[in-house]
């Protein structure tokens, strides 16, 4: 599937994952197993008991520990050649540009719509592709925001909160959505296939229906 040249390209790539919870944990591990050479993990939270049902790095032994630091420990066991750079903070107006700079792709695994919009804005300014994913109950969505798309600003313009608080998140939905996000990361880095730019892939796992929605700006 991947040539030696492709693998060498991945090893030289720096990817930032914003959030290391349900989506982010799976994304970080898949990126490491794929051979991404540098992964920055941005998260200021610790694992809590309520995370045990769905977050890959959450175990009884990691409760109370910083998610980003646990991610680094885990990835060193999986692929010690990967550099994992944990940043124990939230992406805010005051630090966003500094944190995001220097990466070739950013993955949105956040659970806050205002922070997603901020991340999109900074990635646009720095001309960095952003891979967005979101999960709620049986459902999820993925889109690739190329510089200038402003997709999240349009999708979330009438929303301040997601519906995950109402529907909850099971164990399987984050894994599915994270896998699609990592696929989009790979496509962007290697310039293969057609990314989900100006398209929203909507996933209904209850009925196993997948809909690719064309977004008109």
Automatic annotation (TrEMBL):
Top-rank taxon of the source lineage equals Bacteria
Q: Note the coiled coil stretches, chain numbering.
A: none
Pfam families per the UniProt record, alphabetical: ThiF
Gene3D superfamilies recorded: NAD(P)-binding Rossmann-like Domain (3.40.50.720)
Task: Write out the GO cellular component annotations.
Answer: cytoplasm
GO MF terms held by the record = nucleotidyltransferase activity; thiosulfate-cyanide sulfurtransferase activity; ubiquitin-like modifier activating enzyme activity
Q: Where's the THIF-type NAD/FAD binding fold domain? A: 3-215
The name this protein carries in UniProt is Molybdopterin biosynthesis protein MoeB
């Amino acid at each position: 599937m991947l040539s030696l040249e492709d693998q060498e390209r991945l090893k030289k790539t720096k990817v930032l994952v914003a959030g290391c919870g349900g989506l982010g944990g799976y994304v970080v591990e898949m990126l490491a197993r794929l051979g991404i050479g540098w992964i920055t993990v941005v998260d200021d939270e610790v694992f809590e008991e309520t995370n045990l049902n769905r977050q890959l790095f959450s175990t009884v032994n990691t409760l109370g520990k910083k998610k980003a630091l646990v991610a680094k420990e885990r990835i060193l066991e999986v692929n010690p050649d990967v550099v994992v750079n944990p940043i124990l903070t939230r992406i805010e107006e005051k630090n966003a540009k500094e944190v995001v700079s220097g990466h070739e792709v950013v993955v949105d695994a956040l659970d806050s719509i205002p922070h997603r919009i901020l991340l999109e804005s900074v990635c646009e300014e720095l001309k960095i592709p952003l891979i967005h994913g979101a999960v709620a109950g049986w459902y999820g969505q993925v889109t690739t925001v190329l510089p200038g798309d402003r997709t999240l600003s349009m999708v979330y313009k009438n929303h301040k909160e997601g519906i995950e608080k109402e529907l909850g998140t099971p164990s399987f939905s984050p894994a599915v959505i994270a896998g699609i996000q990592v696929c989009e990361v790979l496509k962007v880095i290697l310039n293969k296939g057609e990314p989900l730019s100006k398209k929203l892939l909507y996933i209904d796992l209850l009925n196993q229906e997948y809909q690719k929605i064309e977004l008109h700006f």
